[in-house]
Amino acid sequence: MTGKLNRRQAIKTLGIASAALALPAVSYSRVLGANDRLRVASVGTGGKGWSDLVGVAASPAVEVTALCNIDSSKNHLGRAAERYAAAKTYSDWRKLLDNSDGVDGVIVSTPDFMHAPVSLAAMQLGKHVFCQKPLTHTVFESRQMKEAAQRNKVVTQMGNQIQSHAAYRTAVALVHAGKIGKVKEVHSWQAGTPSWPRNIDRPTGEDPIPKTVAWDLWQGVAPRRPYKTGLYHPFNWRGWQDYGTGQLGDFGCHILDPVFKSLELTAPLQLTAEAPPLNPETWTESATVRYVFPGTKHTSGDTINVTWYDAAGVRPPAEVTAYLPKSYSLPNAGSVLIGEKGTLVIPHVAMPKLFLTGADAEATIEEVPSVDHYVQWADAARGEAETTSTFDYSGPLTETVLLGTVGIRFPGQMLKWNAEEMKIPNFTEAEPWLTKSYAKGWEPAWV
Ligand SMILES: NC(=O)c1ccc[n+]([C@@H]2O[C@H](COP(=O)([O-])OP(=O)(O)OC[C@H]3O[C@@H](n4cnc5c(N)ncnc54)[C@H](O)[C@@H]3O)[C@@H](O)[C@H]2O)c1
To answer: Where would I find the Gfo/Idh/MocA-like oxidoreductase bacterial type C-terminal domain in this sequence (predicted)?
Structure first.
């Protein structure tokens, strides 16, 4: 990420979080009852935002009142405005929030680097927030999201919708039922090859900005750079450090989610990454991150190792597959939990496979049905349900994932993590990467 803070500035910024803890909540949301409709705004109505919006609006108790997109073309603002014709439309989310009396909840489906600025501003106005994964672009922002949600007493949900799918819900239930006994170690991986740019330099030159695109608004809090066709907006921003979080950030909040949920993990004690040298602009083509967490009631030791691998075709090593029948092939992405009584494979995304120690065949499992991740948020905002990926939960999950992206900057260097103080006491050189600088005039209002 260009324009990073120097260490002194970073620590000063991080200090704001704890100093501000004493401040009162700034706003309260309208109290809704069973007969009230939830008035929803969507920021980022194209790409994943389209299915987020349609998913939430599937609830008969939801009314879509505002839509925002920096791109007015058919696939971005166009089709949403057509489908929800009564909604007010905006290109600038700040204007939407300035006129948000008729909005109770905001769906934030922008690229990663804009999640926290939009969500924090919405929560500070007392709006309930559904925000895509990873919750934020930096570790510091994740902590802010959790604190802002608590302070403003709003209903939150991160968009890691697979958490609500039968596949992940069944996996969590199997671990909680003790089917594999206490868990000894975990290996999680993503072997796919992304289509978005990795390990490349910033291109030179500039392309004409399409008439439908407000490029300055797209860049938002990020440092300014010229528009290039097809390299950033839409979708390909993922590979660029200024905007995205690479393969770990893109998939970690999905694949590590049932690991976090089932083992009730919180913050890691330390992590060590292995990765090729990082280009200053883009994320690496592969990474391994070895996390050590404090043990929980679901783990066998005082600590538990959770290892993440991403690389084309990668799988956990032979020591891990030795726990599985020879006839079984691991899926392209997922997790293996090795327990005292058996091994659980959680494919991304399919029903888990349970292998009890000493048995050749897969054990039968009882499926836990899916619930609707999107409608659950709308129902919870109306006091009718509870969300499961609240920012209390998804903040620490995202902090862990993004700590891995900090580790990728310092391959081979073990980083100790003091979660409470947000410090890396054994290697303070890494601390500036817990946060970043913001474009002038776009600085978020921190909690
Ligand atoms: N949960 C999932 O399975 C899943 C799947 C895909 C993407 N995602 C997440 O969804 C988010 C969006 O990803 P995507 O692939 O749809 O990206 P995208 O670039 O394809 O779409 C983003 C949309 O937001 C709009 N937008 C961008 N900046 C905006 C701003 N400042 N204000 C208003 N609108 C803005 C764009 O025009 C576009 O319509 C990311 O955080 C991504 O990680 C989640």
So the answer is: 207-291
